[in-house]
Amino acid sequence: MSTETSNSDAGGETVTTQVDSILAVAEQYWLPIWTVLVFSFLYAPIAVLILFSFEKGTFSSIPWDGFTTQWYAQMVSDTRLIRATMNSLYVGIVVTAGATTLGTLGAIALVRADFRGKGLYRALVVAPMTIPGLILGIALLLWFNFLNINTSLLTVMIGQLVFVTPFVLITVSARLRGFDPELEEAARDLGASKWQTYRRVTLPILMPGIVSGALFAFTLSFDDFLIAFFTSGVQNTLPIYIWSKVQHGTDPVINAISTMVLLFSMGLIVVSELIRRR
Questions:
Q1: What is the pLDDT of residues 122-165, one digit of tens each?
Q2: All domains of the chain, ordered by start, with CATH?
Q3: Separation between Cα atoms, residue 99 and residue 207, nearest integer Å
Q4: Calculated CA dihedral for residues 55, 61, 64, 65, nearest 10 degrees
Q5: How many CA atoms lie less than 13 Å away from 47 in the CB half-sphere?
Q6: If 0-12 CB within 10 Å is exposed, 13-18 middle and 19+ buried, where does residue 15 land?
Q7: What's the confidence (pLDDT) of residue 110?
């Protein structure tokens, strides 16, 4: 009887040891495996898009018909594409300037000022970020129609300002909260005026946050489709042009255009993140 009990205990210890070993291996490798799976899921479509932008055949398929850069050459020679790109750049620059100014001033008021209704102010400023783009685009279109304002690139700028400014405000606010006010007090004690303190102390410290917010704003504006779709009228931006190309069927040039826009947008985001971490 004792022998059976000993064998049973030994078997149980062996199973426990094996389970512990399996759990130890799982703890060691689950995070890398999980990371690979998640990043593969996120970036596999992007990799496929870039890959097929160099395919010679008209239809994106495997096996390849050959390697070519002709779709990029056609992209550069497309006058409608160039016009739409210039419209997006123009809108993005104007929206970035306006959103950066409004967002920076709003961040200073939100972090530094103490006034009644501050919580309501914060909620109202951040609210456009939480509204779905489709709903916001329809609401803006109805509002412009109510005011008898013809849709154009100007209405696109106004609509994007509503959506983009809160992102700049939050970015600059994060930088401002980490700012030590004693640095300004030290500058004032040394004889600097308010303007000198702002120009030589406050602004240089806030500049990484402001530049990061500006790049983020430009990226959001340049890539925006929903708001521009409802408020642009007959003047197309680049995302609307791409959508119109897709509506007319498969075109390999779309892969080339999408690749360039993707790389441009990701580059801006990377630069924005690097500046924000300074």
A1: 888 888 888 888 888 899 989 999 889 888 889 999 999 998 99
A2: 77-276 (1.10.3720.10)
A3: 15
A4: -80
A5: 6
A6: exposed
A7: 83
